[in-house]
Specification:
By secondary structure, the protein is of the alpha+beta class. Helix content is about 60%, strand content about 10%. The chain has two domains: about 130 residues; about 180 residues, 2-Layer Sandwich (Heat Shock Protein 90), CATH 3.30.565. Strand 4 and strand 5 form a beta hairpin. The longest helix is centred in the N-terminal third of the chain and has 83 residues.
Length: about 400
């Protein structure tokens, strides 16, 4: 076969030229020559049989080896082989011979390059998957370490805190018994009590996060009215609003007076956390609004503020535990101080409670800007639950449910 003879004529010189290129790239000379000899032998067989798949076992071996001369892909090596073979053929063969040879070589190299490309993509994907799996495992271990630390720290802090509270109460009692009416002393005791209460709140939040992380947050579903929760929160934050000259407007909406079965205390905690977050990041004199609507099977509660907003990259991050946003220099024990910061547990707890109810929470904001104050809008979706879920609750609350709805459970 003429093409086989033509390949034999250019083989030795082509191998020599290719070897020079690869050795300059850092390839070992003896190994390089040996590998190229094998390549051209198989290339010879492929031309003779017109079967490019003969090259596959050797390509697989090459892909698993190191012959590349500093090149990042084996495709660069096969392109180099084809290029140098073409140069030699153009120099040593007639025009007709060169065209005939390459008419037989090109389909083989095309097949080889397609095969190499596919295999290298598979290899890259496999490596990426392994790296991703490794990083995912590392992040999971880190997250578990966070959860373990939170759980252990919370329980370890409870004992000394209880002692502090007990000694503070005893000291107050002794002072009162001895009729020492010193306003300065009582002021100091009030400060100790206030700090203890704040620390207990933080410990309680840490325990809640630990429960949420371990899917151990249990809900006590009882008759709940959303407007009562919102009124209670309004009363709770009234003093802070006056101090900061903020205004809050809670708009009643159809369905807020319907008796739903939620964990009222937990739902109060979740909505309170979102509203106090709005207070904390709204400048003095700003406004906060709460509104909602009842959809088919869903109740939506929306908290809107005209505060400093949230950067796009932080709008998911704020729901992750121990991810406080903002400058740590502003962190303080004041829960409602402007940009007061904190341990970064309030919104993750709100998310955990709402999701435990089968709902969702997310935030929308046009970004962070302390001058323009684009504000933030938090959406809370809760599934409508108008009937007790278990038999005991139905027996306990059935009469109240019938009274409110006129239907039996």
């Amino acid at each position: 076969m003429r093409a086989v003879d033509l390949l034999s004529q250019v083989r030795e010189k082509s191998i020599n030229n290719i070897t020079i290129e690869l050795v300059e790239g850092g390839e070992n000379y003896p190994d390089c020559v040996e590998q190229l000899e094998k390549f051209f032998e198989l290339l010879h067989d492929s031309v003779y049989s017109k079967d490019p798949e003969i090259m596959i076992p050797f390509i697989d071996e090459w892909l698993g080896g190191e012959i590349a001369g500093g090149r990042s892909s084996l495709l660069e090596v096969t392109d180099l082989i084809l290029q140098q073979t073409y140069i030699v053929a153009a120099e040593d063969l007639s025009s007709d011979g060169s065209r005939e040879l390459f008419g037989n070589l090109l389909p083989i190299f095309l097949f080889a390059n397609q095969y190499i490309h596919a295999r290298e993509i598979d290899k890259s994907v496999s490596q990426f998957a392994q790296e991703f799996s490794h990083e995912k495992s590392s992040l999971e271990r880190l997250d578990q370490s966070k959860s373990d630390f939170i759980s252990i720290a919370a329980h370890e802090l409870k004992t000394p805190l209880t002692l502090m509270e007990g000694y503070s109460a005893m000291l107050r009692e002794i002072i009162e018994q001895k009729k020492i009416f010193d306003e300065h002393i009582f002021s100091l005791l009030d400060g100790m009590d206030s700090g203890s209460r704040r620390l207990r709140e933080i410990i309680s939040d840490m325990i809640d996060v630990s429960l949420i992380d371990n899917n151990m947050l249990s809900l006590n579903l009882q008759p709940t009215w959303i407007y009562k929760i919102l009124d209670r929160i309004n009363q709770e934050v009234e003093d802070a609003l006056d101090l900061r000259q903020l205004s809050i407007t809670i708009n009643r909406f159809p369905g807020d007076d319907i008796m739903y079965f939620y964990d009222g205390e937990r739902l109060y905690q979740a909505i309170y956390n979102v509203i106090t977050n709005a207070i904390k990041y709204t400048p003095d004199g700003g406004k906060i609004g709460v509104e909602g609507r009842s959809l088919k099977g869903i109740v939506e509660i929306v908290i809107i503020d005209n505060g400093i907003g949230i950067d796009y990259v932080d709008q998911v991050k704020i729901f992750d535990k121990l991810q406080p946003i903002g400058d740590a220099a502003y962190h303080s024990s004041g829960k409602l101080k402007y940009k007061g910061g904190g341990p970064g547990l309030g919104l993750p707890i709100a998310k955990g409670i709402i999701e435990a109810h089968g709902g969702r929470i997310w935030v929308e904001s046009d970004g962070y800007d302390e001058i323009a104050c684009p504000g933030s809008t938090f959406h809370i979706l809760l599934p409508v639950r108008t009937e007790p879920l278990d038999k005991n609750a139905a027996n306990l609350f059935g009469p109240l449910y019938i009274q409110k709805t006129g239907r039996e459970t």
